[in-house]
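Lab meeting, item 3. Inverse folding demo.
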């Protein structure tokens, strides 16, 4: 059942934690180019109709997807929408079936770098920064105003995409504990290990760089390790209140964000 959703103020989403997971355009009246976003939320808005059963009437805390459409006169103002939908595929199908505009919907390919997303993990109170970059080699290492952090790298790719030189740039930016997930995770861990002591890459580190690889564990098991078990070593004179999650696809970005938001262990 599709229910009405509240219009957003200019430049805002349903809640502060909502995340745009897919972007596209559509044509209004066949000529006016407008924008649309598919948004992931943890708030499933109910119908509010007391005649509906509770599971339809009431709001729920669960994964939900909404499609937001921009104004035809102000493309930064997303003032109409549809949803909730149970998953991304249903939201996409809903947009493409929208009367009058569905056939004109065109989606971005998802390869663009995404703006950093910041939130707090309720289970550990650690500050999480999620970065999506289609090409790790060209992504700018995250600097958190001098703070050291745990770096969690996730990729479905098996081919080589990291080097000791790239790893050293992340270390110099603040990564002091590195957890890698995916088929290339052992290679990523090796690159960071080399980066920590090869003399031609920089001065020796004044602390022990910790690295782990997780080629066989699930993404969520590996995220749990990074958030709960990755702690500062004895010779690191710094707290590790921050975790940077680096991914190379919108699917991994969404999966990591969903887990971080829902995990309260």
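The presenter then showed the designed sequence:
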């Amino acid at each position: 059942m599709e229910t009405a959703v509240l219009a957003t103020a200019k430049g805002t989403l349903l809640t502060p934690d909502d995340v745009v997971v897919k972007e596209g355009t559509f044509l209004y009246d066949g000529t006016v180019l407008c924008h649309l976003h598919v948004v992931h939320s943890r708030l499933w808005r109910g119908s509010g109709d007391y005649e509906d059963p509770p599971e339809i009437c009431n709001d729920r805390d669960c994964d939900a997807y909404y499609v937001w459409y921009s104004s035809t006169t102000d493309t930064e103002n997303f003032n109409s929408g549809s949803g909730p939908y149970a998953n991304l595929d249903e939201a996409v199908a809903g947009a493409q079936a929208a009367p009058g505009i569905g056939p004109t919907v065109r989606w971005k390919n998802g390869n663009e770098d995404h703006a950093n997303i910041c939130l707090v993990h309720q289970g550990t109170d650690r500050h999480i920064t999620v970065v999506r970059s289609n090409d790790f080699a060209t992504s700018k290492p995250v600097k958190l105003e001098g703070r050291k952090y745990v770096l969690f790298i996730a990729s479905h790719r098996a081919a080589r995409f990291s080097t000791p030189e790239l790893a050293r740039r992340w270390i110099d930016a603040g990564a002091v504990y590195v957890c890698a997930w995916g088929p290339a995770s052992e290679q990523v861990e090796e690159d960071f290990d080399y980066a920590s002591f090869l003399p031609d890459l920089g001065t020796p580190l004044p602390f022990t760089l910790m690295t782990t690889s997780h080629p066989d564990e699930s993404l969520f098991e590996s995220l749990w390790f990074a958030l709960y078990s990755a702690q500062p070593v004895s010779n690191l004179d710094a707290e590790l209140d921050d975790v940077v999650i680096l991914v190379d696809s919108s699917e991994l970005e969404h999966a990591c964000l969903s887990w971080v938001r829902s995990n309260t262990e």
